[in-house]
Specification:
41% of the residues lie in helices and 12% in strands. The chain is of the alpha/beta class and 331 residues long. The radius of gyration is 20 Å and the shape is globular.
Length: 331
């Protein structure tokens, strides 16, 4: 059964029986367009954080619609899983559960074992709006599938493994009133200790599974870039990436950037040790930096990761995380 087969590997073939989703006819800002390209090309797990009304949910949904088309075999597996839930599927699955969803419905299990929403998202996108409001056991259970692409459920009398390889896109406010932005003055309707306790719903291990943290207050307003033009640009980048690799893959799944690739980087501005992990920082944060830098290089149609790609990747993979961590330690 492909639903329960963690060793299943999709063939790199183009599927001809899906229907591409319609893009909403909206306009985005330059900052939003840059972020959308990085997510669409590299499929990096991303947390959109910031005040209410800044477009976090809209951008998460738009990101999911800009991804590359599925290949034949993985699409068939996604269809098989979707049929088990009694739902039709015409493209990559986009699953958006409510934050009140139980651990059983999200993860799977039960007296008669059945898969959960994270398995329904296999081959597609899991959008978790109001991420901090999900139950702690739901958030922590994401660590295994984000690492391995599968979820193993152990209950009395049985152990079951389900496929669960998906792109996680999550949105959240950073405090109960929603207006907290690290490194920026704000008027909070509550007390700072409430903000602090709210942020502690984000554990270090689950935060480490996000390659990108992006603050929505910095996106700006009155965008001028149309989604159709953005989609065309992304298609060109994906074609370049496919030609560069001679295969279909996504940068989030790179096991690591090799030492040789690092040595070959064009680092005429930066010394190599300037972008190595900070003392006490996790190795996952370092790998996220390099993987996102590879995607930014692809967006520039560059065969090599260059110094400015590393610097740009810092803005997505390091600076926001350190800023948030510093806020939590100082208040």
């Amino acid at each position: 059964n492909d639903i329960q087969n963690p060793t299943f590997v999709a063939k790199s073939e183009i599927c001809d029986n899906f229907k591409e989703p319609d893009l909403p006819q909206i306009q985005v800002t330059g900052a939003q367009a840059e972020l959308l390209k990085i997510i669409a090309v590299g499929e990096h797990p991303t947390l959109f954080a910031g005040p209410p009304g800044t477009g976090k949910t809209t951008l998460a949904m738009l990101s999911s619609l800009l991804l590359k088309n599925p290949d034949t075999k993985s699409f068939k597996v996604s269809q098989q899983i979707s049929r088990r839930f009694g739902l039709p599927l015409t493209w990559r699955p986009i699953v958006s559960p409510h934050h009140t969803s139980t651990a059983l419905s999200m993860i799977g299990g039960g007296n008669i074992p059945r898969p959960g929403e994270i398995t329904r998202a296999h081959g597609g996108v899991l959008i978790m709006d109001e991420f901090l409001e999900f139950a702690p056991e739901v958030k922590e259970a994401l660590r295994e599938p984000l690492e391995t692409g599968q979820i193993t459920i152990s209950r009395a009398g049985y152990v079951q493994t389900y496929l669960a390889k998906f792109l996680l896109l999550a949105t959240t406010n950073l405090c109960p009133c929603g207006h907290l932005v690290p490194d920026k003055n704000f008027e909070c309707q509550g007390k700072i200790r409430y903000c602090h306790s709210h942020l502690h719903k984000l554990s270090g291990p689950i935060m480490d599974r996000f390659h990108i943290l992006n603050f929505s207050h910095a996106w700006g307003k009155n965008g001028s870039i149309k989604t159709k033009a953005l989609k065309n640009e992304i298609l060109k980048i994906q074609d370049f990436k496919k030609e560069r690799e001679k295969k279909i893959s996504v940068n989030k799944d790179l096991p690591q950037i090799s030492e040789q690739e690092i040595l070959e980087m064009d680092l005429d501005i930066l010394e190599r040790d300037q972008f190595l992990p900070r003392e006490g920082a996790s190795h996952r944060r370092y790998l996220a930096l390099l993987k996102v830098a590879r995607t930014i290089a692809d967006c520039d149609l560059s065969l090599k990761i260059q110094a400015h790609h590393i610097e740009k990747a810092r803005e997505y993979t390091q600076a926001p995380f350190y800023s948030l961590k510093s806020f939590m330690q100082n208040y």
